UniProtKB/TrEMBL annotation:
Coiled coil: none annotated. InterPro entries: MS5/SDI1, TPR-like_helical_dom_sf. The keyword Nucleus applies. It is found in: Nucleus. SUPFAM superfamilies: TPR-like (SSF48452). One of its GO terms (cellular component) is nucleus. It holds the Pfam family TPR_19. The keyword Nucleotide-binding does not apply. Keywords: Coiled coil, Nucleus, Repeat, TPR repeat. This is Uncharacterized protein. Its main location: nucleus.
Length: 62
């Protein structure tokens, strides 16, 4: 995504997600879609991001 080729990046993130889904890839795909002006698709993609696991009363404890 560093070279602003969001169509190519979208394809790469979709392929990567099909192999090993995770929140980082899903968020980056959402950003690619937003940068292309595909806001509704971006919103739907970002809604599929799973919330982080909370380990303690303040959130994730390190």
């Amino acid at each position: 995504m560093q070279r602003d080729n969001f169509v190519e990046a979208e394809d790469a993130y979709r392929r990567a997600l099909s192999i090993a889904p995770d929140n980082n890839k899903m968020c980056n795909l959402g950003i690619c879609l937003m940068k292309q002006g595909r806001i509704d698709e971006a919103k739907e993609t970002l809604r599929r991001v799973k919330p982080a696991v909370v380990d303690g009363p303040r959130g994730v404890d390190f």
